[in-house]
Automatic annotation (TrEMBL):
Name of the protein: Alpha/beta hydrolase fold-3 domain-containing protein
Residue numbers spanned by region Disordered: 129-149
PANTHER family referenced in this protein's UniProt entry, alphabetically: AB HYDROLASE SUPERFAMILY PROTEIN C4A8.06C (PTHR48081), PUTATIVE (AFU_ORTHOLOGUE AFUA_3G11560)-RELATED (PTHR48081:SF25)
A Pfam family assignment: Abhydrolase_3
Coiled-coil region list: none
Length: 488
């Protein structure tokens, strides 16, 4: 987005009355969050909330263009932009489509995307650079070699990172702050994927890009800068929709492992001329993971006073004015996926019946609108024998650690995320299931049992999701729109 001084002034001047009202109510302890947040946090959240209230929505294309501008390489970071060539074989696509069909519970409709080159960024921490230093022009390969030779890189951790932005916004370049921080906290590096955006590219395009990116780390395509990265050195990570993609990719890999021949230690896929193994990564993590595309869980309404995202009751069924990318042709009813797919485990990981066999998971949430879905996935996975590290931050909104970097709770969150990733790679035997609740004002911590953080059964959760999906379908039909014929 435009961060120039004139643009910031233009944005903030109309918000002065809101800022003054917020300051007054906060100082008089009249706001519902005045005992939890400092004034700066409360003003910032209220401004963001006012910009996202849906009363004057912008066309989707305009929003998308405003969030994919590269801010440039500046400060304490190494950045090397790369493109992973697609495999000439069709095996990756067919493995994905088979998993989608095997995991469905009824008729679904989706367009089968073609495999494409996957763009990404290698990101590393550069401690000796000045805070405002701009990177001089070098080749991307030279940048990669400098990243790899930096003395601060003390670990073999490789974070496979998927950015957030509801699948239709953002770009890896907008997430350099958190990926550099993760590189610093782990002593490793990040591989941030530029997956194809919705609505131009619908599910399962993003999952296909994620699978190609993972295979490209394990088995580098011709011309790659990097050497093969062992799965035991790779940790998936993502925020919001990127957390969804991290956990959906995990579910896809688990499905490949469930259906492999018993005689094989790992499933295999034909990739760039070789039959390659597809092991599980060392760990998987999500910061404010968006695990439920149906938007059905109760905390979407009950926790709205702590969040800046609009709750479902405050948004229209189709809040975006028509433009050149929305609505799509043929229509599908949701920006990311056809309505028939909303409860599919590879679209909404909340619906996954099993996490058995998963590597360790790190799941973080504030006291936000997505808390219920994050808590349920964590509790269900732990009950099935998966190692789960759960962190919850009192009264904090969606992805708070990435927006309010100066808060003690934000520093605590990013440090915990990095610590988990490094432990999964360097000392997996010390990673244990456990939960932590962190107070907002004091950052004091208390332990919580992961098994008790969600009070919902799987049947109740599926009921929430099914009803939300049916409501979307009925709304679609009331508007006189027809759905494409499902793939049976």
């Amino acid at each position: 987005m435009d961060g120039s001084p004139s643009a910031i002034v233009k944005l903030l001047v109309p918000k002065i009355p809101l800022m003054l009202k917020t300051a007054l109510w906060h100082s008089l302890w009249l706001s519902p969050t005045s005992t939890k947040w400092d004034l700066r946090t409360e003003i910032t959240v209220n401004i963001i909330r006012s910009l996202m209230d849906g009363s004057n929505p912008s066309p989707m294309g305009k929003l998308q263009r405003s969030t994919i501008k590269d801010p440039g390489v500046k400060g304490k970071m190494w950045i090397s932009k790369v493109t992973m060539s697609p495999p000439p074989e069709d095996d990756v696509r067919q493995a994905l489509f088979k998993a989608i069909d095997d995991m469905k519970e009824g008729p679904v409709n989706y367009t089968q995307p073609e495999v494409a080159p996957v763009e990404a960024e290698w990101t590393g921490y550069r401690p000796d650079a000045a805070k405002d230093a701009e990177d001089s022009a070098r080749s991307e390969e030279d940048n990669y070699e400098r990243l790899m030779s930096d003395p601060s890189r003390k670990s073999e951790v490789t974070i496979l990172y998927f950015h957030g932005g509801a699948y239709y916004l953002m770009d890896p370049s907008t997430h350099r702050g958190p990926t550099v921080r993760l590189a610093k906290e782990t002593g490793g590096r990040c591989f941030s994927v530029r997956y194809r955006l919705a609505p131009q590219s619908a599910f399962p395009t993003q999952l296909l890009d994620g699978l190609v990116a993972y295979l490209s780390l394990l088995h580098p395509p011709p011309g790659s800068f990097h050497e093969p990265v062992p799965a035991s050195h790779i940790v998936f990570a993502g925020d919001s929709a990127g957390g969804n993609l991290s956990f959906a990719l995990l579910q896809l890999l688990l499905q490949l492992h469930r259906t492999k021949p018993a005689s094989q230690p790992h499933p295999t896929i034909r990739f760039h001329g070789a039959d390659v193994a597809v092991p599980l990564p060392a760990g998987v993590s999500a910061n404010s993971g968006w695990f439920d595309i149906t938007r059905s869980m109760p905390s979407l309404e009950t926790n709205a006073h702590y969040d800046y995202l609009p709750p479902p009751s405050a948004t229209a069924s189709d809040p975006f004015p028509a433009d050149d990318i929305w609505p799509t042709t043929p229509p599908r009813g949701d920006v990311f996926a056809d309505l028939s797919l909303l409860c599919h485990p590879l679209v909404s990981p909340l619906a996954a019946p099993s996490w058995a066999g998963s590597p360790p998971l790190w799941i973080e949430t504030g006291e936000e609108m997505l808390t219920d879905e994050d808590a349920f996935v964590a509790a269900r996975a732990a009950a099935q024998g998966v190692t789960v590290v759960w962190e919850q931050y009192e009264a904090m909104p969606h992805c708070f650690a990435m927006m309010f970097e100066g808060l003690e709770t934000s520093r605590r969150c990013m440090a915990g995320w990095g610590r988990f990733a490094r432990a999964c790679v360097e000392s997996p035997e010390v990673v244990r299931t456990g939960g932590t609740f962190v107070e907002a004002r004091t950052a004091r911590e208390r332990e919580v049992g992961v098994g008790g953080i969600s009070g919902y059964s799987f049947e109740e959760v599926r009921g929430f999701m099914d009803r939300a999906r049916e409501k979307r379908l009925l709304g679609w039909e009331r508007e006189g729109k027809s759905m494409p014929k499902p793939n049976l």
